[in-house]
Structure formats: C-alpha cells, structure tokens
C-alpha cells in the first residue's frame, strides 16, 4: 500500500487552502493513502504567553515542565487538532483525530528529564491501527504526543513523530512542512541532498535551531526504509528532497 505522510508545522491553518486539498485529492487518485501529523508550536507559544509562562527551547526542542505539558495537551487536542480535522471534513475527506491514547498509538520514553522535562522520543508506533484506517480510506490526523509504559504523557517533536510513523508503515514519501521552502546554504535553496550530506551540513552550521531535529528525524526515516523526505513550506513544491542514495 503506497503511503504519504505529511507533517504540518508552523501556523497549520495557513496550509489548509484549496491547493493543499487538491494535492491530497490528487495523491489519493494516484492510489496513495495519506497520514497527517500536525505540530502546534505557534499556538502553544501563544497560549503560554497569554498565561505568562516563559518559553524555553534547547536544541530545537521545547523544554516541557508539568505545567507546559498540560498546556501542550490542551492546545494540541482541544484547539489545533479539531481545527485541522474540521477543515479536512469540510473539504470532503473522512478523517479521524488521533493521539497517543488511541490504542497506544504513539509510545515513547523521556529523553532527558533534567534538561528537557517531559520531552520524549518515539519508541513504538501502532502501525497495525494506522494500516487498518488507511485501508478504509480514512486520513488519520495525529497529534505529536506520546505515552510511556508507566502512563506518563510526553511532548514529542512533531517531525520525530512523523518520521517514526512514516518508518513504521514504510511510507514512500514524507513531507515535513515548515515555515521555510527548504534548506538554505549561503544564498541558495538546495533542491536535493543525500543522507550522507546531513552530518556535514550540521558541522558547518548550515542548519541550526528547529531545522536540526528535522534533519535528524529525516535521517532516521530514510535509514528505516522511507524512500524520500521533502522539507518545504508547501506540498505544492518539493522544496529540498533528501534521498537515501543521491
């Protein structure tokens, strides 16, 4: 079963235009199944600002205290995901909003509680559940949260979740949508890089901040069998394509 995973980032509502849904429809007409993983950093930061809570980021990851985790869950599951699913449904697509609590969809573990708090990484994905849904032509819309074996909820980078989901179902393509049209080196937007070039781009500090977890996650997805990863600001363009073999 051919599958495309799309991670929506930035201000998610800005992506949900006619061109976006036309592309989703085009993929489906070509026989692809589609899975969406959504971020929500913009909305979470806005809510934290309203509540007077300082946003702290380390290595491109949001430091997540217990209070920040509560806000993150509230915003992702109560605001962002319903907004996205509503747009999809109004465009005529059958969708299901999903999170880590859906039959252990996203299992995770804490990365470094002392430095990052309740920030996690994915340890397992319930790919059988996802395959069952996409076989029935539903579009799962997944929030980037995980749960540990002991039941602790975790804030997980959406790129990490998208890449692990793509790897678990052996997706053909993975789109990491962000607020820039790809990877920029000096004054040039790169059209294509190989997985071997990722380390050098990091060493040369061509990529920094939030782009770092994107590249790390893309690397893992490619090694796990995903054929191509695209970093772009729209699914209308390929942006920068990362291939396992260039």
From TrEMBL:
Q: Where is this site: Transition state stabilizer?
A: 7, 214
Q: Which residues bind substrate?
A: 40-41, 62, 155
Q: In which pathway does it act?
A: Amino-acid biosynthesis; L-arginine biosynthesis; N(2)-acetyl-L-ornithine from L-glutamate: step 2/4
Question: Where in or outside the cell is it found?
Answer: Cytoplasm
The record, for CDD domains, names: AAK_NAGK-like
The free-text function statement in the UniProt record for this protein reads: Catalyzes the ATP-dependent phosphorylation of N-acetyl-L-glutamate.
Q: Which protein is depicted? A: Acetylglutamate kinase
UniProt source species? Enterococcus saccharolyticus subsp. saccharolyticus ATCC 43076
């Amino acid at each position: 079963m051919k599958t495309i995973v799309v991670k929506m980032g930035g201000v998610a509502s800005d992506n949900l235009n006619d061109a976006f849904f036309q592309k989703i429809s085009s993929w489906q007409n070509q026989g692809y199944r589609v899975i969406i993983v959504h971020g929500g950093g913009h909305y979470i930061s806005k809510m934290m600002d309203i509540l007077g809570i300082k946003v702290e980021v380390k290595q491109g990851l949001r430091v997540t205290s217990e209070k920040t985790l509560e806000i993150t869950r509230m915003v992702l599951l109560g605001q962002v995901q319903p907004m996205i699913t509503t747009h999809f449904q109004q465009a005529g697509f059958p969708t299901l909003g999903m999170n880590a609590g859906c039959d252990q969809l996203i299992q995770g573990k804490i990365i470094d509680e002392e430095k990052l708090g309740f920030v996690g990484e994915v340890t397992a994905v319930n790919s059988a559940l996802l395959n069952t849904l996409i076989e029935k032509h539903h579009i799962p819309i997944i929030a980037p949260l995980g749960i540990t074996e002991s039941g602790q909820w975790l804030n997980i980078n959406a790129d990490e979740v998208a890449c692990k989901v793509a790897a678990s179902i052996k997706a053909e393509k993975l789109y990491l949508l962000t607020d820039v049209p790809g990877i920029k080196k000096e004054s040039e937007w790169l059209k294509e890089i190989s997985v071997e070039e990722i380390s050098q781009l990091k060493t040369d500090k061509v990529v920094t901040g939030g782009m770092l977890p994107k590249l790390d996650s893309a690397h893992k997805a490619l090694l796990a069998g995903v054929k191509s990863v695209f970093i772009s600001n729209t699914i209308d363009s390929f942006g920068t394509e990362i291939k396992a073999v260039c």
